[in-house]
Structure formats: C-alpha cells, structure tokens
Amino acid sequence: MKVSAFRMGWIMVMFDLPVLTQEEKKTAARFRHDLLDDGYLMIQWSIYARPCISYEQMDTHIARVKSMTPEAGNVRLMFLTDQQWGKSVTVVGKNYRQGKRTVDPMMPKQVEFWD
To answer: Is the Cβ–Cβ distance between 50 and 39 less than 8 Å?
Structure first.
C-alpha cells in the first residue's frame, strides 16, 4: 500500500540560541549534535530537517526536541509534506562553503516500508 504524499514529509527545526558565553556556545553545540544524533540533517547553521512518515511520528519528534531544547532557546518546528519539500528551491552562491550542510535531501527509500 502506497503511503499518501500528504502524510509523509519532513519535520524542520529552526532555532535561535544564545552563543555569547563559552557555556552558551557549548549548550548550542550540544543541541545541534543532539539533533544530528536523532537523525536530523543540517540544512543551514540553525535549520535542521528529518524525514517523517506521519503526523504521529512528528508528535514523537516534537516531544524529543522539546526535551533537549536549552532553557534560553527559541525553537520552531514545522512539518512539510514530501510534495512541499520537493518543490523547495535551494540557491547556493558560487563562493558559499557548504561544509556538512545538506543541499537537497531526499526522502529515504526505506521510508516506504516504515508504516
């Protein structure tokens, strides 16, 4: 059974964390590493995304992000369907240093078997 393109999607985490002191920098780095450990891909320095197969799975990930958000953090989570994600456009300047950021992540093939 094919899962609806409007059920599968991406959960995007966008955040603003203070980084003025060494402790704040350490806390922000820990938060970013926690997101990576939970399967998120770095899209930009403070924007991460991961595939989700359902709204229910999104609720689970929201709870996880809430539990690891620093006390001084401002975090927004957004769900985009796979169709919406696929219509996004990434424009990268010729001198931009991509580093570990993901340019155009695609829904992993094995997601089709998860539901």
So the answer is: yes
Residue whose pair of structure tokens reads 């690891």 in the numeric block: 68
Decide: 47 and 14 in contact? Cβ < 8 Å: yes
Q: Which of 44, 45, 39, 50 is nearest to 12 (CA)?
A: 50
Q: Can you point out the beta strands (E) in the chain?
A: 9-16, 41-44, 47-52, 74-81
Amino acid (one-letter) located at 2: K
DSSP 2: P
All structural domains of the chain: 9-86 (3.30.70.240)
| Spatial contact of 17 and 72, defined as CB atoms under 8 Å apart | yes
Name every residue whose Cβ is closer than 8 Å to that of residue 22 and which is 6 or more positions away in sequence.
none
Number of Cβ within a 10 Å radius of residue 58? 18
d(CA 44, CA 91): 12
Question: Could you report the per-residue pLDDT of 20-34, keeping only the tens digit for each?
Answer: 999 999 999 999 999
Whole-model pTM? 0.79
